[in-house]
Write a structure and sequence with these properties.
The complex is a heterodimer of chains A (116) and B (114).
Chain A (H helix, E strand, L loop, with lengths): L3 E2 L4 E5 L4 E3 L2 E2 L6 E8 L6 E7 L7 E2 L2 E6 L4 E6 L8 E9 L6 E4 L3 E6 L1
Parallel strand pairs in A: 2-12
Antiparallel strand pairs in A: 1-4, 3-9, 5-6, 5-10, 7-8, 8-9, 10-11, 10-12
Chain B lengths: L3 E4 L2 E4 L5 E7 L5 E8 L3 E10 L2 E4 L7 E2 L9 E3 L8 E8 L9 E2 L3 E5 L1
Parallel strand pairs in B: 2-11
Antiparallel strand pairs in B: 1-3, 3-8, 4-5, 4-9, 5-6, 7-8, 9-10, 9-11
The chains are: A mainly beta (116), B mainly beta (114).
Chain lengths: 116, 114
């Protein structure tokens, strides 16, 4: 089974609207972290937001929030008030394990395009 | 400035010619990792290192070697590159504990093997 699944290859959103990017994960490890990264066309990887498996509240960072539903193993990224600069690839990632074992798995990404 | 540096940024080489891509971080991070990015496949972890002299395989380690002799450096070695190793490579580093430790990524190395 895929450890990280992003089922939306591409998404369009109108400027100033909110958009949700889907991510589901699969792990049997009780300790894990979920991340979202943004990759603009220039190629760099930009950290957006983090959610720990034991965190009780959904993470928020400015216009980014992570809708964490542990029972459903989903960690969707919500971007509010989209801006043209949000057009990019978005990757969901999971870090499993603790101590001497910490692997990281990325999804295949979602390409978001913000329309003026 | 806190950063991860990679060299070279671009490299074209021929099959079988050994090469090394260097990675260095100035944040005193314990955890370092190498990824390759291919269209439609996202980023895949090649190797990671929890600390000096501690390395482990990621999901796609075949054809690659790493070493971690110093905390700041984590070079990626391709002993005998092949065309299927043509890819965009990223090095990343973070603190080792699993909470709130975002990875800082280098700018990437675009490798072409002919």
């Amino acid at each position: 089974a895929q450890k990280i699944t992003q089922t939306q290859p591409g998404m369009f959103v109108q400027e100033k609207e909110a958009v949700t990017l889907d991510c589901t994960y699969d792990t049997s490890d009780p300790s894990y972290g979920l991340f979202w990264y943004k990759q603009p066309s220039s190629g760099e990887m930009i950290f957006l937001i983090y959610q720990g498996s034991y965190d009780q509240q959904n993470a928020t960072e400015g216009r980014y929030s992570l809708n964490f539903q542990k029972a459903r193993k989903s960690a969707n990224l919500v971007i509010s008030a989209s801006q043209l600069g949000d057009s990019a690839m978005y990757f969901c990632a999971m870090r499993e394990g603790s101590g001497g074992y910490q692997k990281v798995t990325f999804g295949i990404g979602t390409k978001l395009q913000v329309i003026p | 400035e806190a950063q991860v540096t990679q060299n070279p940024r671009y490299l074209i080489t021929v099959t079988g010619k050994k090469l090394t891509v260097t990675c260095s971080q100035n944040m005193n991070h314990e955890y370092m990792s190498w990824y390759r990015q291919d269209p439609g496949l996202g980023l895949r972890q090649i190797y990671y290192s929890m600390n000096v002299e501690v390395t482990d395989k990621g999901d796609v380690p075949e054809g690659y070697k790493v070493s971690r002799k110093e905390k700041r450096n984590f070079p990626l070695i391709l002993e005998s590159p092949s065309p299927n190793q043509t890819s965009l490579y990223f090095c990343a580093s973070s603190l080792s504990h699993p909470r709130q430790d975002e990875q800082y990524f280098g700018p990437g190395t675009r490798l072409t093997v002919t």
